[in-house]
C-alpha cells in the first residue's frame, strides 16, 4: 500500500536572530532566542527568523507561521510557505523572516506553527524590560558623599 498523503511531523521550530546556509546546504542558526530582554519599550527587532523542519510526511502542504501578541489575538507577523515531501523518509526545512517587528508592550508573545490549518506547535517568547543598571564603583574606591548646596552667608 502506498500512502498518497500523510500529514508531516514538525521536528523543530526555533526563533533566531539570523539563519545562514553553507555551500554544503547545512544551516547555521545564529542567536537562538529564548526570550527578548530590552532596556525600554517600544522597541523594533530589525529581523526575526523562524527555522522550521518537517519530516515523516507525504504530499503537498502549506506551513503557516504566526507571531502573536500578548493579547493572544493580534497577529503581528504571518508567513505562509508551500512545501512538498515525496517520501516519509525525507525532510523539508522552511525559514520565515519577520522584518521590523515592533514590540510595544512587555509580556508573553507566541509563535504558532500550523500545517494545512492544523496547529502543530505553539511556544512562548517572553519580552522582558530590564532597565540598564548604573555601573558599580571600582573596587576599593571611596564612595562619594552626597553633595550639599553651599551654606548661605
Structure in words:
It is elongated, with a radius of gyration of 23 Å. With 153 residues, it is mostly beta strands. The chain has no helices and nine strands. The strands form two sheets. It has a five-stranded mixed beta sheet, with no helix packed on it. Strands 2-1-4-7 form a four-stranded antiparallel beta sheet, with no helix packed on it. The chain has strands at residues 9-21, 27-32, 36-38, 43-55, 59-68, 75-85, 91-103, 107-115, 118-129. The relative contact order is 0.24. 0% of the residues lie in helices and 59% in strands.
What's the total number of strands? 9
- Characterize the overall form: elongated
Distance between the termini: 103 Å
Largest sheet: 5 strands, mixed
SSE order, one letter for each helix or strand: EEEEEEEEE
Strand content: over 45%
Main sheet strand line-up: 3-9-8-5-6
Number of helix segments? 0
Give the integer mean of the pLDDT values.
92
Structural class: mainly beta
Contiguous runs where pLDDT drops below 50 for at least 5 residues: none
Into which percent range does the helicity of residues fall?
A: under 10%
What is the C-alpha radius of gyration, as a whole number of Å?
Answer: 23 Å
Summary of the model, kept short:
The protein is mainly beta. It has no helices and nine strands. A five-stranded mixed sheet has the order 3-9-8-5-6, with no helix packed on it. A four-stranded antiparallel sheet has the order 2-1-4-7, with no helix packed on it.
Amino acid at each position: 500500500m502506498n500512502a498518497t498523503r500523510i500529514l508531516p511531523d514538525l521536528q523543530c521550530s526555533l526563533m533566531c536572530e539570523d539563519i545562514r546556509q553553507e555551500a554544503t546546504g547545512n544551516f547555521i542558526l545564529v542567536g537562538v532566542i529564548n526570550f527578548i530582554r530590552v532596556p525600554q519599550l517600544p522597541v523594533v527587532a530589525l529581523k526575526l527568523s523562524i527555522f522550521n523542519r518537517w519530516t515523516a510526511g507525504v504530499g503537498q502542504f502549506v506551513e503557516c507561521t504566526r507571531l502573536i501578541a500578548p493579547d493572544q489575538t493580534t497577529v503581528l507577523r504571518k508567513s505562509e510557505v508551500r512545501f512538498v515531501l515525496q517520501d516519509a523518509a525525507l525532510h523539508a526545512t522552511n525559514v520565515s523572516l519577520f522584518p521590523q517587528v515592533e514590540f510595544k508592550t512587555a509580556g508573553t508573545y507566541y509563535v504558532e506553527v500550523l500545517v494545512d490549518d492544523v496547529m502543530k506547535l505553539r511556544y512562548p517568547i517572553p519580552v522582558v524590560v530590564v532597565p540598564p543598571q548604573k555601573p558599580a564603583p571600582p573596587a576599593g574606591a571611596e564612595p562619594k558623599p552626597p553633595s550639599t548646596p553651599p551654606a548661605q552667608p
